[in-house]
Amino acid sequence: MEVDGKNVTLISNLSGNSWGLGISEDFELFASSANKVPAQHVHAPYPYFNAVGLKKEPALQIFDYPTFYPVTITRQGDHFGAYTAAAGFDLYTARSFPKRFWNKTAFIGAPTGKLLGSFQLKENEEGSYQAINEGSFIASFDERTAPIQGKTGPDGNLYMIDWNNLIMMHGGHLENPLRDKSHGRIYRITHKNNKKSQKLNLRNAGTKELINALENDNMFWRMMAQNKLVQGKKYDAVPSLIDLAKNKNLDGIGSNPAVIHALWTLHGLDQLDGSNEEAISSVNEALNHPSAMVRKNAVQVLPKTNRSAKLLINMLDEENSNTLRNILLRLSVMPENNEFGEIIYSLKNKIKDMKALQAPYNLALIRHGSSLAEKLIAEGPPRNKKNEVDAKPIQEKPQNILKNPSFEEIEKGLPKDWVAKLHYGKASLSIDSSIAKTGKYSAKIESKVGGGAEFHMVPRLEPGEYLLSGWVRTKAVEGINGVLLKAEGSGMSRKESLRLNGTNKDWQKLQMNFKVDYDSGVLIYCLFGAWAEATGTVWFDDIELLQLTSDKIVPKVVDVESLIAKEAFKKGADSVIRLSKLINTRDEIFTRPFLKGLSELDNIKFKDEQVKLLKEIANDASPKNKMTFAIFASNNNIDLGLSKLATTIKGFEVELLVGDPIKGKEYSKSCVGCHGGNFSGLISERSPSLPQLSKWYMQGQLQKYKQNILGYKIEDSDSYGMSILMKDYSNQQIADMVAYIKTFKPKKQFNTLDGDPQKGKIQYQLNCMACHQEDGKGSEQIYAPNLIGLSDIYLVNQLIKYRDGIRGSGNGDKHGKVMQLFAKNLKNEQVMKDIASYIISLQ
Length: 843
Hints:
Blueprint: E1 18-23, E2 29-33, E3 37-41, H1 46-52, E4 60-61, E5 87-91, E6 105-110, E7 115-123, E8 129-139, E9 147-152, E10 158-162, E11 185-189, H2 207-213, H3 219-231, H4 238-245, H5 257-268, H6 277-286, H7 292-301, H8 306-313, H9 321-331, H10 339-345, H11 355-368, H12 372-378, E12 410-411, E13 414-415, E14 419-425, E15 428-432, E16 442-457, E17 460-461, E18 464-479, E19 483-489, E20 495-496, E21 502-516, E22 520-528, E23 534-547, H13 560-569, H14 573-583, H15 588-595, H16 608-620, H17 626-636, H18 643-646, H19 661-667, H20 669-675, H21 695-706, H22 717-726, H23 731-741, H24 757-767, H25 769-772, H26 792-803, H27 814-825, H28 829-841
């Protein structure tokens, strides 16, 4: 933003309630966020996405684990044991503390745990960083201690801001008139090996003193000097800044902060817009600086010229991945040059699996590779129609998740990969070669005097349904718990199989189903006695764990070929026809990623003759490629003769489940902050009232958020936040949450906008009544929700989002696409207000 607070630019979205922003000495942006997300890296700021129209990518989570380490069990929070309200992300940016702190240690407040944690930043060689959790830097027994920031001060020491508040969290259940909002504490933390910091006063500093301050070892003073030079328009500093920018020295961490500040000060004084050749020359020189930190900042201040673009394209062999990320980002805003497309495309294998580099690579390629699609397709292998067959679903047999399930692999006399453990009394655990259901061996537990023991394994399971089974033989087993299989973990409810006692000479099969709600380790037990006394002998064999269904959200991966083809297709109907015709001459498998660029395009205008040509091309397409043409035809309302195929396109289908309101009460605590204690919505949070909505609709909407069908657009910050939140819940937990919300009564709504209900009635009957019914209460058969009970502000906001394509564009959201059509029919926002006013009158 500007210094006066105007022209705010959205840089990135974080994963939850945002608490901290951190800026490193080399101007990387970091953040902390609520709900177990203490460290994120803004690897690709949104203005770069805006420049080419690519879907935005949020900040990357870079922490190794979110656990915090309080010294007392008295703490607040909905994520006990982890950073819940991660506050601040403050790097140590001076030189008074020892070297290991310099631009590497980030201090993150955990007020719910009464501590200030520290994370060590390390480049991960993939274009980003890893934040390594070092535990607590400061932790308190005082229940009022609430650290929210740990900043580097002007003297090079650390200053911890303590909100000193007994109640930290938001939400109606924590409202208290005794809550202290007026007092706090500031602690000054020094290091026993402190290096004394130079005292400065820049209030009336002249140009020379400010230039010298750019070389200070504390970023606090460097930033202040840069600010005074730029805001004070100290143009007489330019010659000295140019000289400083040419300095090739390195400090103790391989950087030269003075050069970085000199470059940005020249930029701030408008000396890098092409008007000062000597200043531009100093930047070009800095592109070859021995410090990668300097090089990446020099890249960022380059003017947007063809000359700069050529310098950048020659730097693509850069070894430092974070500098390469910035080179690609800067290339994405340079003047388009089709000659660069093939050079950038050649990096594809080099950056494979480097998550932080993928978006910058795509951005640069889209800018310079719009003509590349045709060339790449033409170079592909020719089409062979004999090899093309209709797509048939592949029936895959579920694979056993457990290692060494039949105990055939032995290590030190016990089954490999299994933990053999005595947990009660006396019992022996061994491998038996005389008895086995299959193979040569079985796992044996025996106790003559009474005991309990187990073989267990801890596979990591994704959300979904599982079937655990195993075969057992028993001899004279007696005990309260006998022999059984068991599964338990933090992400599921404990489940046990049938318990066996006595003698079973034939192998008996034990089995059970269980559901995992979220990604977690699950203990799989083969139990004898089960923490109680048992006698006798049991043999286990062929233990099998199968995954029956998956609730895992798989991120959509878009091939770069699809992106560059999409840019080419977007140029219009002629481009669609020309490229599609070329695709039909090339191998089906090779061209499939390119053709996928068609699937999300809409509003392409076609003349009748062009539709006829494309229909012929679609008819000649390979069987597997025809579906893409059917989707494109449906999205653009043209007839390509594939209507029968188009009807097989499946949209989202809700999994309706019976919810438990008692369990739902706990889950719905995360809803209170935005929807209020009675879930009637809060205007300040732009949130809707919920109790009046049907169970089928609420479950469906929340599952859409979970599946990225709703909330996938970062521009829709409200829905994006919902999408992030719902990924933590299984469909069953969502049903429980809905069941609890439905125990509340909806509140009456009132007109707050200047809508005319009489005019709104006419528009409602024309545009809304067919689906939402005359009384506004909707219809489950056509997936139209009840509108009665929603505020007029919320209704208008949603209509605007549908009109602008922010809502309803998700893959599979067929009902949302219908809403888009009707919202676009509404003349203006006043008509929307009139409709909302009429709906309010139907209460």
